[in-house]
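Hello forum,

I keep getting stuck at the same step: I have a sequence, I want structure tokens, and every attempt I make locally crashes halfway through. Rather than fight my setup again tonight, could one of you with a working pipeline run this one for me? It's a single chain of 644 residues.
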Amino acid sequence: MTQVRRSQLISPFGSGALLTDEKGITHVTSAIDKWFPSTADSPTLDVDSFRVDEPRLSRRLGTDHFRLPPDFNLRRKKNAKLSIPSQRFPSWHFCPEPYCGLMRQASPTTDMAVYCENTTNHSGGKKVRMFQVRFVAMCDHGHMSDFPWREWVHRQVEPTCTMPMRLKAMGGAELSSIQVSCSCGSVSPRNMGGVLESNRDEQTTRLSTTLAGDGILYTCRGARPWAVVGDQGKGDCGRHIQGSLLNASNLYFGDTVSSIFLPPAEGSGISDELLIKVNDPDLADLRPAIKSGALKIPPARKTFRSVLKLREDVVPDEILDAAIGIVCGLREKPSDSGTDPGNEYPDEVAYRREEYEVLLKERSGRLLTIRDPGQENYSEEIRSCFSKVMLVERLRETRVLTGFTRVMPGGGPALTPEMKRDLLRAVPEAADIPSENWLPASLTYGEGIFIQFDEDQLRVWGKDEDSEARSPLNQRFDKLHSRYESTMRYQEGHLDGPRFVLIHTFAHLLINQLVFECGYSSASLRERLYVSSDPDKPMAGLLIYTAAGDSDGTMGGLVRSGEPANLEIIIRRALSQAEWCATDPICMEAGEAGQGPDSCNMAACHNCALIPETSCEEFNRFLDRGHVIGVEEKGISSFFTALL
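Reply #2:
Ran it on my machine without issues. Output:
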């Protein structure tokens, strides 16, 4: 049994991902509809104890609720000994050097070591343990299978030979030094050279085009071994297939969506404590019925009062009804904006705008506490750059796994969000049942610092002064944007002007400095960006918060770093460090041609502006110190002139 944290089952070891146990055996995590046993198999199962309700995020993703991954516990009476199922993968094993190299398949359900049966070729007739092969096959629609060893060595799409095969390393560091041969003797050994190669421009792979030769394509069979044990597919996918190493970084990309819990509007009378009570597991049967409209709130109100022991003089009917509506995923109030209620959050910007507006105000609650330290208490230099600094003493983040891809983040051009979500389940149709329409989630309780940039200063800084030509700053941004446009991950409107690069890079610089000041590691801090250049509804803010805290959510160090007596010193140090990178002038000069993932960074490297990818919303892309500190010889001024 492999032990992993529950949060790791959202990322990076979610459904369909590979993980290696302490015995060195690699497994694939099962589909999420296999995570919880049936009540017949586990009479003490209480699924509602794993339920997470985040109405705002549920409306956005179209789910009924979320669930925490089950945890293993021997002591409690309910939900004891629960575990996430997994299968051995890949199933092919080989006898290692200096022994015979014989290959054989093992059952995906065995957790025992596999031994070579060919003891006559081993010195002293010793029993040799076999190891899983290092290669698998995948496609950009999320499928994964054993590497097609027989097809590859026989150069046929559907070989009939069943003779033993052998895998041998002939010496050398290249894949071409690894050879597979068949005992039938009808084909010559074939090396593994080129099986990892692909042509992204033409959406082709070397494995698909050269496996059989003569223009015959070998395509993906649609295998889903995490959903169906031992599945090798039925040939119903048709995408080009690509070889991969077990430890390759592009073998699994989990798609996650996160949300900061927002309390009901001030003045509504609905407290966080009331929302938690209304989520009581004993009321689990009522909530789906209310959400679907089969049961109205007023008739159900009496049951809620009885179970929760809520007196009407303490919680009036209108407040209880509103709380029930929020928890059941109904809108808090009818839309008066004229927008389609089913399109409440047309994009990520609209979703984050709600958080942005809430973070600008003081709040006091069990799940969200925001304190205003007073802008007048900060120095004039800070006030000239930032219009607001808010200290988030307590927050709750919900992080949800919504699907996954392989080969590249986001998947192929035809891979829709619905297709990525279906990959999580063995039976995707089961999600049509309201009680089964859930996604796995993790909860983080933490603290943070919210900073709002001064909008007037931003407009002056990013303005094109010459109407005949782009300003030096915008010309620099255009170079970065053009490189982003050439990538397969391009999304129109995502890179929202120089302000996005400025705020994103500043967040990285600040995180790198905060690790020396607040006691958290860089992997424990995370950024959340609020950026929009919409002239009617501009946004320019960032939230730096703890991404890995204890159940109480805070050590307090991050909030203390944001206090008026400390924040200015930390920002000055961060900007001072950014003025000169340890690899300059190379880092600054390399930015002209692009560096980093997809060449979508300018002056930013591991010595100055990069942070752990789990802490960055953009996978360490769209970074440039030139946008932050300026580039004097290019005529680009710094936004932070007052602090430099």
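Residues 41 and 82 are 11 Å apart (CA to CA). If your local run keeps crashing, start a new thread with the error log.
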